[in-house]
Design a protein that fits this description.
By secondary structure, the chain is of the alpha/beta class. Bound molecules: guanosine-5'-diphosphate, 6-O-phosphoryl inosine monophosphate and magnesium ion (MG). Guanosine-5'-diphosphate binds next to helix 1 and strand 3.
């Protein structure tokens, strides 16, 4: 068996949580491979709504295993809150939730450093979720980090004190006030809680499962345009969000990767700072935000909204090796006369169809094609035959331009609002 991957092709929030939950019945293991509590993955079913940050989105299927891989960074405080909320809902995480011994820990001082760095950047800030993601990955690559395995060793306090002292020295360089004691107290309690979790050597676990022919789905966080190498740097997150990240973030070899499901919204959003070529600054943008409830699942910040961007999607499809596409939020685009699609950019006087090195404001201008819109409410539709002809036309148009089959169309936030599609391309 191989590991399938589901990941976002835009700037995050494409609906990964919803779709992972929908396809979990096809798998035995769901594994997160990067990111941390900067993620907010929303699931809705049976009239209930949940937002997961660190825990994989297969957790509501009691017979499945959910692995938090080595590539993930864990804030024990947020993790404990997530587990507590699930337990309250009757989810039995004891049997199904497994943490990698090699996953790195987010310290309270990582969060403080994130905040201090963003404050210093002023108007040039990344717009980080302030969960300490950047500083934690910096300590990982700088070879200073603490891992889940350290929390289980008797040298933990010593290692913690050493890293904390380094962070305090760094914080001293910023104009930034903080009170560490209450944060540290809460964190240490959460570390005690973490010690009660099932901790595994996840690379062995996953490879053993592969050998035993178990089906594994790797769940991405953020999106390809937030990737540390290929995203809109420096306005990115600090991990590899692309398919290659699943190999390093789980310990899975390249030849063990199967399908790569790329998920995208029928339009586009971004939260935080950084370039967004097709962003709408007018009433249309407001309308998309209101109709799509485009507010961050982690921070509540309004998401910036704009039209779909094909050169950016093609780039993400190329980097990830996407084999199947999933389109969400088609319902939000109902009632527009026309839907605009960015097919090219004007760049240095030339019309190009690829993502250039810099997509900063002024560097590129989107070129749009207007596609006839659809007026029907899609949220009650459950089969491709019910979908309006104009939407089917939009789907075929996207497939032809992106050259990858669209196999799922999502028409609402609920698990049931999902249409599987036999693409002629598949
Ligand atoms: P993720 O980070 O990729 O898991 O996505 P988020 O959960 O942050 O954001 C996606 C939002 O859109 C959530 O509020 C979902 O409940 C919602 N959503 C997912 N799919 C659809 C859809 O097809 N239509 C609508 N209207 N909402 C959707
Ligand atoms: P999910 O998994 C959308 C954005 C932040 C900021 C930048 C860096 O829900 O799709 P960080 O906290 O990583 O230092 O922030 O990345 N960002 C996300 N945007 N969805 C996410 O996750 C995001 N995680 C981080 O807004 O611009
Ligand atoms: Mg999200």
């Amino acid at each position: 068996m191989k590991v399938d991957i589901l990941l976002g092709l835009q700037w995050g929030d494409e609906g990964k949580g919803k779709i992972v939950d929908v396809i979990t019945p096809d798998y035995e293991v769901i594994a997160r491979f990067q990111g941390g509590p900067n993620a907010g993955h929303t699931l809705e079913f049976e009239g209930r709504k949940y937002v997961l940050h660190t825990i994989p989105s297969g957790i509501f299927h009691s017979d499945k295993k959910n692995v938090v891989g080595n590539g993930v960074v864990i804030d024990p405080v947020i993790f404990k809150k997530e587990v507590d909320a699930l337990v309250k809902e009757g989810v039995n995480i004891n049997k199904s939730l497994l943490l990698s011994r090699k996953a790195h820990l987010i310290l309270p001082t990582h969060r403080l450093l994130d905040a201090a760095s963003e404050k210093e950047k002023g108007s040039k800030k990344i717009g980080s979720t302030l969960k300490g993601i950047g500083p934690t990955y910096m300590d990982k690559t700088g070879r200073n980090g603490l891992r889940v395995g350290d929390a289980l060793s008797d040298k933990f306090q010593e290692k913690y004190d050493q890293l904390k002292a380094k962070h305090e020295r760094l914080l001293g360089h910023y104009d930034f006030d903080y009170d560490l004691a209450p944060l540290e107290e809460e964190w240490m309690k959460a570390i005690d809680f973490l010690r009660t979790m099932t901790v595994i050597d996840s690379e062995h676990y996953i490879n053993n499962d592969l050998r035993a022919d178990k089906r594994i789905l790797a769940e991405g966080a953020q999106g390809s345009l937030l990737d540390i190498d290929f995203g809109s740097y420096p306005f990115v997150t600090s991990s590899n969000t692309i398919s290659a990240g699943a190999c390093t973030g789980l310990g899975v070899a390249l030849n063990k990767i199967g399908e790569v499901f790329g998920i995208f919204k029928a339009y586009c959003t971004r939260v935080g700072s950084g370039p967004f070529p097709t962003e709408l600054h007018d009433d249309m943008g407001e309308e998309l935000r209101a109709k799509g409830h485009e507010f961050g699942a982690t921070t509540g910040r309004p998401r910036r909204c704009g039209w779909i961007d094909l050169p950016a999607l093609k780039y993400a499809i190329m980097i990830n090796g996407v084999t199947k596409l999933i389109m969400t939020k088609a319902d939000v685009l109902s009632n527009f006369d026309h839907v605009q699609v960015c097919t090219h950019y004007m760049h240095q006087g030339e019309k190009i169809d690829y993502l250039p090195y810099s997509i900063q404001d002024g560097e590129i201008t989107p070129v749009y094609e207007a596609i006839p819109g659809w007026q029907q409410d899609l949220t009650g539709m459950r089969s491709i035959d019910e979908l309006p002809a104009e939407l089917n036309n939009y789907i075929t148009y996207l497939e032809e331009h992106l050259n990858v089959p669209i196999t799922i169309v999502s028409v609402g936030p609920d698990r049931s609002q999902t249409i599987h599609r036999d693409s002629v391309m598949a």
